[in-house]
Backbone:
């Protein structure tokens, strides 16, 4: 037996016991006649002690290097100088037998909470990075969250059903990863972007409440913090309305917040998509802080300020307590919004001084009275700084939304230990894509229009049709989204036509689903959470990578195992494939 | 709200309540002035009743077809003629409002426990097949088993870690499915055959107790009841010896047998690979019944029976109570063993009559005394039938093992509600492959030799080296297997060399793992269960297909969604691929 205890559990109660521990050498302190070794495992650190009473052992201990794997047997004794910072700090092990289980080369970075290893190096040696507490604890945290999710949902009667990974490529949505079939030359499976159609078929199959924590795949050009494979908590319910779904999954997230953080939230607020866009310029607003948009378009036009007079929209936010910002500080913000990533042409500011007076960059055009009106509209208080952007409505909303988040970040308003969930509902069913000159499904092609809006699908501008689609937003991140689905063949066919599918294409791609709808499909709907992000946000972080055991880099590579890689000519031939070399 | 109750929960206690149910029309019984409708959902069946008091409603009910989806509102009343077979049989719903939620075409097969649909049709309309109780209940059963597994293992401190699906192709083992990379032309990911190397890296990373229920992929020529994608309960532990692993997972299976069947088994028997081969000709013996092999080689040779005298091995089993088999019955068994699938040249039988006398097909060569000796060796009792096969040892064992199972099947000794687990241990490390003229790893290339046998690796016949490898066998099926792993770079390199890898190939394929071993790899080992089979056997079945929601057929096709399928030229070009047409 390699150990009787872990390195995290011994304390004063165990004094006098003979124990065996195994773990990694974290640190060796060689005081000459005494050597202390910090032995580490997943559970903690325990101090081993060696002294001159056993010189052979002392010499052995002297040779230990960092990250050596050792087994130590000995007696638990009280420590002379206690370490109150760790649970095992009252004791140490007076070692009487030491076995080196494996030696270790010096690791390429320090295995400490704060490491000297850069991102690239840590990815290459991910197995060493995982030994570090911050990474290890995030993985353990993820495991706890998933188990809590599963327990909650199965208690609610959900059935965990595994859907297939080798499915069929569909042109809708993002790009598929495909898998060539050896047995069917020239044919390919695709990896699922989500189990969407399968969960709907489970509803047709009467399965009624389905859940799965499942890997999904998207072959997208990777942005920072996007992974080609990601994990979804995927759920679907039959015989439900939107209200049933919102209540069920609000229950789940409440349960997680309670279990993990001891936080109780009575009822999650709800906001329509239109309202979210109007108030925050964004369909996933962070509502941990205010700074709601004020629409200054009417108030600011027609006062001789040409820049504003030409614009579709003039929107402002009141940054709390920032009226005393220096010119330099304000210039920095202006520079920030003018960066190509944001793309604003300029920014107008108004200081609402503590004494009630206003000082702005457009004092030439606006009276104190005018600016007082702006303050009312943006809900500014004395001491606040009003920041104003203008342009066409969509762009200005996007820019001001980014500015709002940036100011909140700067002011420390995005507190990682505060949780502000929000349902955003009543999403539009369709959006128009200028590039391809056709409608895209805002959620996906299986989302049902609101029954009261369905007749508008046949009008000239079906973009006004709303869907029973909803997102769950947490601290400014979309952590989940879903919709009530179409369960009628005709409606599904009409929808696919609207999205540019010919009848023939629709039948080839989704015939199995539309056929299924003819055999008694129940009303149904569902939701999926992005697990990687959900876990990160519950962990108080916004980057997902450390919550993934073996993440890929931004080029989609696993630099540890060096994948993707070439395959043999024999493999290619078996798959009836040939690689096309670039003509250069 | 679509329903206040499910179709499985109303009983006499609810009489008088106004309820709303939704579900599928199972059956309509039209008695003219009264119509009864069986409404079905996942939870059960409830009878709806319509009568002449509401003629309009009666007419509406008359139009309902099988599998229509309806919502019914009404009052729970006591049934005139009760149905004691179902939990809701004491009541019915006197309907006062009926809404057709979706119509249904007549399904292509009956949605009954015993259906008239053939395998192919049921696969194509899998969503209808799932509505049938036997399939639905198997999927629910699977969900319960996986949840029980997760709860047990997380209670034991295991961390559920997701390993990647887009990894690297390795030539060892079965054929990989590969995934072309668009971003890295000419390069491919591979889908994991198992997360083997990743779980070992988690051990190097200090994660200590890992579990995952995970999909694995093998591009094999499919045999019956094999799926290209299958699910594993994958586990690994560090700082453990074989004994720790056996105890941990024996605990898991005990827990499942207790939870699911209320069966308590004190201690699972253990048997060495050698013993299993000797006694049952098979490394996964079904020990629910006896019929252990008797080795008649010595006793049966040298008595003038030429056929036996030439053979390496003569093995027999005693079939209990079959001494009274007719000539015709015995001929049928002989024909059975001579089928090409078994391939025996012939069979010798000995009837051990109730009166103590023997009657055999080789009476010409053997005395009663000789045959009595055979009876002793095969442990036959009066009334038993001894069946004897001969040939080279390996083949004879395989054939007699098949015969033993067949006889047990015929005699009803393979009881689905009896569970006989068995650990088979001390597997050989290597096996020789005649075809490729090289050694194969019996378990996999990461399995460690037994320390006491390791020195034999350098001898001429390393096949005698045993491994700390073990299988868990349940009712004649291998449900899990694993081993103690190599955790030393040199040993891993030597092993890969033995398996035919050059140093360079070993480094290219497994360099990341061998490098990891240099940074303090702990001793570790693990095990994986085949979930599909485990669930089937716990469910008392041996075919796995019905325990998989959307299985593929024997050609690896999903006939419901019609995958694999062609992809567009544009997709191929993005992947820098071209399909090679067969030259014919």
Residues:
């Amino acid at each position: 037996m390699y150990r009787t205890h872990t390195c995290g559990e011994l304390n004063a109660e165990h004094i006098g016991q003979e124990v065996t521990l195994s773990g990694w050498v974290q640190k060796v302190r060689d005081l000459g006649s005494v050597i202390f070794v910090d032995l580490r495992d997943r559970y903690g650190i325990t101090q081993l002690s060696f002294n001159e009473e056993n010189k052979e052992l002392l010499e052995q201990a002297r040779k230990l290097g960092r990250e050596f794997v050792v087994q130590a047997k000995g007696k638990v004794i009280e420590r002379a100088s206690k370490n109150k910072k760790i649970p095992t700090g009252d004791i140490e092990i007076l070692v009487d037998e030491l076995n080196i289980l494996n030696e270790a080369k010096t690791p390429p970075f320090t295995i400490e909470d704060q490491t000297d290893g850069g991102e690239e190096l840590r990815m290459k040696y991910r197995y060493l990075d995982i030994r570090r507490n911050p990474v290890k604890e995030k993985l353990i945290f993820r495991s706890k969250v998933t188990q809590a999710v599963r327990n909650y949902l199965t208690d609610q009667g959900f059935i965990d059903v595994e859907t297939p990974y080798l499915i069929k490529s569909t042109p809708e949505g993002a790009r598929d990863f495909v898998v060539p079939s050896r047995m069917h030359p020239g044919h390919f499976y695709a990896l699922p972007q989500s189990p969407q159609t399968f969960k709907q078929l489970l509803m047709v199959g009467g399965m009624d409440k389905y859940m799965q924590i499942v890997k999904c795949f998207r072959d997208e050009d990777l942005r920072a913090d996007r992974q080609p494979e990601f994990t979804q908590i995927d759920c679907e319910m039959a015989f439900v309305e939107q209200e049933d779904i919102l209540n069920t999954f609000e229950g789940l997230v409440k349960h997680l917040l309670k279990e993990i953080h001891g936080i109780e939230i009575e009822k999650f607020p709800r906001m329509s998509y239109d309202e979210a866009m109007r108030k925050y310029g964004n369909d996933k607003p962070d509502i941990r802080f205010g700074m709601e948009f004020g629409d200054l378009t009417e108030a600011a036009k027609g006062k001789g300020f040409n820049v504003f007079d030409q614009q579709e929209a003039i929107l402002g936010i009141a940054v709390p307590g920032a009226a005393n910002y220096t010119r330099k500080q304000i210039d920095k913000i202006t520079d920030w919004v003018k960066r190509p990533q944001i793309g604003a042409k300029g920014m107008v500011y108004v200081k609402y001084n503590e004494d009630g007076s206003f000082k702005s960059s457009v004092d030439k055009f606006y009276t104190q009275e005018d600016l007082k009106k702006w303050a009312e509209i943006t809900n500014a208080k004395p001491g606040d700084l009003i920041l104003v952007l203008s342009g066409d409505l969509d762009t200005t909303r996007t820019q001001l939304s980014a500015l709002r988040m940036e100011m909140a970040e700067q002011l420390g308003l995005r507190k990682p230990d505060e949780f502000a969930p929000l349902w955003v509902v009543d999403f539009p069913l369709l959006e128009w894509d200028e590039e391809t000159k056709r409608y895209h499904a805002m959620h996906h092609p299986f989302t049902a229009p609101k029954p009261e809006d369905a007749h508008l699908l046949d009008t000239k501008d079906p973009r006004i049709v709303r869907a029973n689609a909803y997102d769950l937003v947490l601290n400014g991140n979309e952590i989940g989204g879903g919709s009530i689905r179409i369960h009628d063949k005709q409606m599904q066919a009409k929808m696919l036509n609207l999205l540019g599918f010919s009848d023939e294409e629709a039948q080839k791609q989704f015939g199995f689903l539309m056929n299924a709808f003819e055999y008694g499909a129940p009303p149904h709907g569902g939701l999926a959470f992005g697990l990687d992000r959900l876990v990160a946000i519950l962990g108080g972080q916004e980057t997902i990578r450390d919550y993934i055991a073996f993440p890929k880099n931004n080029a989609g590579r696993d630099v540890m195992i060096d994948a993707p890689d070439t395959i043999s000519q024999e493999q290619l031939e078996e798959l009836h494939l040939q690689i096309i070399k670039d003509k250069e």
